[in-house]
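Section: Multi-chain targets

For targets with more than one molecule, the full set of components is provided together so that the structure can be written out for the assembly as a whole rather than chain by chain. Components appear in the order listed by the source. The example entry contains two components.
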Amino acid sequence: MVVGRKWILKHHFDGEVTADAFQLVSEELPPLKEGEIQIKTEWISVDPYMLPYTKSMSPPMTMIGSSVALVEESKNSKFPKGSSVISYAGWVERAVLNPETKMRTMPMCVPAPALPPGMNPSLLLGACGMPGNTAYFGFLEICQPKAGETVVVSGAAGAVGSLVGQIAKIKGCTVIGFAGTDDKVAWLKELGFDHAFNYKKVSVKDSLSHAAPKGVDCYFDNVGGEMSVSVMEAMNKFGRVSVCGAISQYAEAKNNSKCILPLCVFKELKVEGFLVPRWLHRWQEGIMAMAGWVAGGKIKARETIMEGFTNTPHAMVGLFKGTNTGKMIVKV
Amino acid sequence: MVVGRKWILKHHFDGEVTADAFQLVSEELPPLKEGEIQIKTEWISVDPYMLPYTKSMSPPMTMIGSSVALVEESKNSKFPKGSSVISYAGWVERAVLNPETKMRTMPMCVPAPALPPGMNPSLLLGACGMPGNTAYFGFLEICQPKAGETVVVSGAAGAVGSLVGQIAKIKGCTVIGFAGTDDKVAWLKELGFDHAFNYKKVSVKDSLSHAAPKGVDCYFDNVGGEMSVSVMEAMNKFGRVSVCGAISQYAEAKNNSKCILPLCVFKELKVEGFLVPRWLHRWQEGIMAMAGWVAGGKIKARETIMEGFTNTPHAMVGLFKGTNTGKMIVKV
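Its structure, encoded as tokens over all components, is:
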């Protein structure tokens, strides 16, 4: 008899993310049917999108998310025992599943892409996974940055933001990052950001009048709300805003920041939101480009690792408090 | 000696547009120099953009705006005596000017385009002028509407909105308009809008759940603020928002509507603002297309005409109170 543990989201988050919204459950796993595999999760990804996504779902339910897992048993020849998979089965320690069922837009499991030697498989959840492709396509396709332009990144020390800033440097842009602690700001400067600011200590407006004297051309937005208004006020005509997320807004129903639409008109801004499955048909291209930059030392991928499956809810709470630098991840 | 009258904007509007911000001034016109012309204004256009534009200017100054004028005297062979011009000289009854100087992005004067027989020259300030091109390019280029799609227009009974709805019908779309009086709503239905609602009486959300059961694909926004949030909440994935104006926001520094950025993300919306001089190189194309549709009866162009140069400030006040249906215009 094999026992699997999983984290149940008991109910929607009431405003902020707290650990008591989750419950750890043990269950006996069923025997494998034809086509099924048994996985053992090794790395779990904890990401900002989880909060707004669960809002439209119906708890109680197994908490959603992606992970790197080992195939422990297999009745599916495409997923042999001992191989690695990227799983979208959620916060499960062990599970029996059919890898070919769909989890909304993503397949339940895909074989883990092969990374260059020496790269940790956890990168498949970060720089060489969904956050990597989010940065790669979401920035390059939507912002269409040109060498010499000025790029602002909010949430710059997060999993996606830190990659966007480094890609922008590779493309010859001047890069300005905003983050929420002095340590994060120091790290952004190590990564090669031209300017980095702690938005809790300085005004976005003043920072940009100093760091972007020619105005801002591209804005990669992870944050939303008041900060986004301030950045858009500093943008040039025909600026491009890639809206990757709005973490400051996910818990709030209303805010009192200015309406950005007048700015859109008078600066002729283009503001486009995206979800990264838009580029599923180019997924491998993005992963390989990112892996090449990481292997070549052009992109540094930092992780904040919490140990232990039982700590997964705390990783999620920490993510929304900003305790991570780079990718927040759980080592099972 | 020829005397010209003009309206001076004495100071910025303090919140709302009031007539006492203007002062009527008479002045003796100078003799014509080589290259100059003397114009007599016949029709003055009063438009929403004037409020936000003047915010970045330095009153006291001659109030800005476009008009149709007659050339009364000329020392410029391109603008012969007796010809008609589109003038950007502002709220002047008579003026001496060099038509080739620039008024920001626009030339001071251009020869008035020839309209099909029977069409009133005031249309050169509406359906066959800047508002016409704003509707034509701002809707077709930015929304890229496809036959069968659902289009929402806010400020639908205004000069631009009423044209956008009719263009959308020509393109085979289902068209829903929002306006602020029952009379305007009745007129929108006469124009062929599939649905029209008085947003002061019904909720935008409820209206759209009834009128747009398949969701909204394109939104042409003249209004901004809370209404725009509600429309975007009803939009389909990959919806396109053309932000023409945000009249509800021009007087306010802050509002308490939701931040639209989360909607941009999860619906993968593209929100693009524009200023119509972007298409100056295609100006004549737009005017001729619009004139053709008006002459062929496919587009009805309604005007709210106030009589008398001295009433120009009252036309402007009325515009922001929503007293106009269609184009607000002053007959000098």
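Chain A has nine helices and 18 strands.
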